[in-house]
Amino acid sequence: MKALRKHSFDPDYAVPPGDTVKETMEALGMTQRELADRTGLTVQTLNRIFKGEQPISYETANKFELVTGTPANFWNNLEAQYREQLTKLAEKAALGTSLSWLKTIPVAELMARKVIAQADDRVLVLRETLRFYGVSSVAAWATIWERPAAAARRCVHFESSPGPTSAWLRLGQLQARDIKCAVYSKARFLEVLTEIRTFTTRKPEQFLPEMVRLCASAGVALALVPEIKKAPWSGAAEWLTPDKAMILLNLRGKSEDRFWFTFFHEASHILHDSKKEQHIDDGKTYANDPAEHRADEFAADMLIPRKHDPAIRAARSAAALRQIAATVGVCPGVVAGRYQHLTKKWSHFHALKCKFQWAAEP
Q1: 17-96 adopts what CATH topology?
Q2: Which helix (H) or strand (E) is 279 found in, with range?
Q3: What is the pTM assigned to this prediction?
Q4: How confident is the model at residue 171 (pLDDT cuts 50, 70, 90)?
C-alpha cells in the first residue's frame, strides 16, 4: 500500500465568496448601489451573492475583475471552493447517519495495517473506510459485498462476518491489482500448477516469489494476506477482470498441508468454474455444492494421486510416510495430512508437518 494520506484542516463551515466581494467593495469605498451600477447587476443579485444563495458565474467574475481589479480566476476559484465545501458538509451530514456500520468493520485492524488513516473524527474514519472499499456509501458497500449477484458460490457462512471477510478480500484485491499478469491462459495455468507442486519440498522464502511469478505468467494474481479475526477463511478465488484471476491465501491453521491443499483447491475454481462467481473457502466441504467437491478432488489428486491412498492409510510409522512422500515427490507434511484425512486420526504424525508463519515486518 502507498503511504497514508495526510489530512489538512477541514472546517465544518463554508464561507460564501460573497463575503469577499462585500469586503472588496467596502475596501474600495463603494456602496452596494455603486457596485451594482458599475457591474450592471441588480442590488438584489448582489444580495443573493453576498449570502451565497446565487453563485458567481464566469460572466459575473469577469465583471468583478473589470470593476475591482481582482482577477476573474480568483472569483471563480473562490466560488468553486465554496461549492465544494458545501458538498463536503452535505456528505458529512449524510455519512453521519451511517456511523453504526463502522462497528461491523475491523477498523482498528485496518488502521494497524496502515491501509486507512488514524483519525479521531468518526465521520472521517467512515469516509476513509469507504475509500478503502472503493465505494461512495454504505448502501453501495452492501450492494457489492452483501448482495453481489456474482457470489453464487460464496461460503454459506459469509453472512456471519461480512465485515471482517470483506476487509480480508478487499486487501487481497488491492494486492492482486498491483501484480502485473499476462492474459489468462488455462493451458499455461495447468503447466504452472504442475511446476508449483514440486515447491512443496522447499521453504516459503524459496518458493513464494517464484510461485507468484509463475501464476502471474498464466494470468493469475496470487495474493497472500494475513488472516483477520472473525474471518475464518482459508482461501478465496475470483476474477478481477475477464483476463485476470485472483487466488487469495492466508496461513489459517499454519500447517503446510492446509496451505497447499487450499492453493490447489482455489486453483480448481479458476480452472473449472464460472468467471462470474466468487468463491470463499473455510476449509469445509458442502454437500450440495459440486464445485466445492470438484475443487477438493482436484487439490487431492494434484498433490497425491488417489492410487497412493491405500499405502498411506496402511502406514504405521513416520518413516513409512516419508518414503511415500519421496516416491510421490511432495513434502512429508502433505502425506501426513492425507493420512489424517483418510484415517481420521487427527493427532497422528503432526511432527511431520511444518508450520508456516508470517515474516515479521522490518
Answers
A1: 434 Repressor (Amino-terminal Domain) (1.10.260)
A2: strand 279-281
A3: 0.76
A4: very high
